[in-house]
Hints:
By secondary structure, the chain is α/β, with parallel strands linked by helices. The chain folds into 2 domains: 3-195, P-loop containing nucleotide triphosphate hydrolases (Rossmann fold); 206-363, 3-Layer(aba) Sandwich (Rossmann fold). The chain has helices at residues 3-11, 19-29, 44-52, 71-85, 101-108, 119-127, 144-147, 150-161, 183-187, 218-226, 240-252, 266-277, 288-291, 311-318, 336-345, 377-388, 395-404, 406-409, 411-441, and strands spanning 33-37, 64-67, 92-95, 114-117, 138-141, 168-173, 191-195, 206-212, 233-237, 257-260, 283-287, 301-304, 328-334, 353-354, 356-358, 361-363. The strands form 3 sheets. Strands 3-4-2-5-6-1-7 form a 7-stranded parallel beta sheet, sandwiched between helices. Strand 12, helix 14 and strand 13 (328-334) form a beta-alpha-beta unit. Helix 6 (119-127) runs parallel beside helix 8 (150-161) and helix 16 packs across helix 17 (395-404). The radius of gyration is 31 Å and the shape is elongated. It starts with a helix and ends with a helix. Residues 370-379, 400-404 and 406-410 have low confidence and may be disordered.
Amino acid sequence: MIEAFQKHFEQLGFNEQTAIQTAVFNALSEDTSVLGIAPTGSGKTIAFTLPVLPKLMPKQGVQMLVLSPSQELAMQTTSVIRDWAKILDLKVLAVTGGANVSRQTDKLKQHPEIVVGTPGRVLHLIDEGKLKLGKLETMIIDEADDMLQDETLAVIEDIERTTPMTSQLGFFSATRTKVLDDLSIMFGRDIIEFDVRNEDHTQGVVRHAGLEVGNEKRVEMLRRLSRVKDMRALVFFNQLKTMNYVASRLKHEHVQVGVLGGQQRATDREKALRMFRKRQLKLLLTTDVVARGLDIAKLPTVINFDLPTSAITYTHRAGRTGRQGEPGLVINLGNEHDLRDFKKLIAEDYQLESIYFDKSKLTDERPKSVSHKPATLAEQSSEYIRETQNNDDSEVTKRVHKTLDPKHASQPRAKRRKKNKNKKDKGIRLKRQRQAAEKKGE
C-alpha cells in the first residue's frame, strides 16, 4: 500500500486489511486478472480500490471501469472509491440507468479516470460514442455471481469487447456459483481465484430466526414488529406487486416506511435510502436486485417477508446485517409448513431458531396460550372501534362487520317469527281436536 493510502487507512480507524484485501493486493497490483470470493461486508470494494488506483495516470482518460448490478450499489461504490481517488487527484464518475443521460454525457467531457456504472447505461454510452474505453487498464465486475447471467452477461461481454485485450479483469462475489468456473474461457484470460470465506472473520454474530405467522397475518405482524423498541429493518420481497401493496398498507397505518424498487424514479430511491441510513425510517422495503451489495452501517435487522427460494439468495439478504463485526438478526416470516421447508433449504449453512412476538417484543419463549370467553356484541363493537383506528382490513373488522350486518342481525328475529307461527298452528290444531270431540260426544 502506498504511503498516502496507508495514512488514510489509519485515519479511517482501520488497523489491518481484511482477508480479501490482503489476498488480492499483489495480484491486482501486478496487472493479474482475479476472482475474489469473500463474505458480504468484508471490504471487497476497498480490496480492488487500493491496488488499482495508484496505477492510474491523471488526465489520461478512462482507465478503470467498475460494473455494478444496481444504481444504489454503483453510487455506494462511487462514494468509497472517490474518498481514495481524491488523494491522487483522480476523478470518479457514476453512470447509471434512471439518471439523466445528458448530464452524464457532459461530465464525461471532463475526462474522469474512473467510471462506475450499471451495464445497460455503460453500453448505451459506448454505443453512442460518448464513453471510450481504448485506454482502459482495469475492469471490475462486482457481484459477479449475479451479473454474469442471462441478458446482463451478454451486455458485459459486449462492453468487454470494446476494451484492450491487455486490460486487467477483476471479478468479486460473496458466493460461488457455477458460472464462475468458466471465466477464463468466457473472457480469454488467465484468472487466478482467491476464496477467503473460511479465513474471513469480519462478520459479527448473526441470529437466524423463524417467526411463525399465517400468510394473511404477515402485514399485521410487520406493523407490530415496526413498534418494537429500536427496530430498524431492511424487508425483502420476492415480487414488486406484493412490496407495493404492503407499503401502501403500512403507510395507512402511519408506519415510518420507505420503498426501494426498480420501477421508482432514481431520486425517490436515493431519498428513501438516505432517510433509512439517517434512521428516519423504521422499515425499508426492497427486492433482491435493488438491495444487492448494499452497505448500511450497523443495520440491526433483516426481515424476509417472502422467504427466498434459494440458499444463495438468503446469503445475500442475510449479509446486509452483521457487517464489520456488528451483531445482527434475520427474521423469516412464514407459516409452519413454509418454515419447515425453508429450514431444510438453508440447513447446510445456517441454523434456523424459533422466535416469538409477545407483548410488543421479540422473545425466545413461546407465549402461554390464554383462553377467552366469547365476546358480547357490545364488546365486539368496542373492539371494532379500537382496531379500525389502526387497521381497516383486520380480522376483527371482518368479524364485527359480519355480526352487525343486517342479514346477520335479523336471524334471531326470523327464528322468533317461525317459533310464534308454530305456536299458532299448534293452537289451531288443539281447538279443532276439541271441537271434533264435542261433536262426537253429541
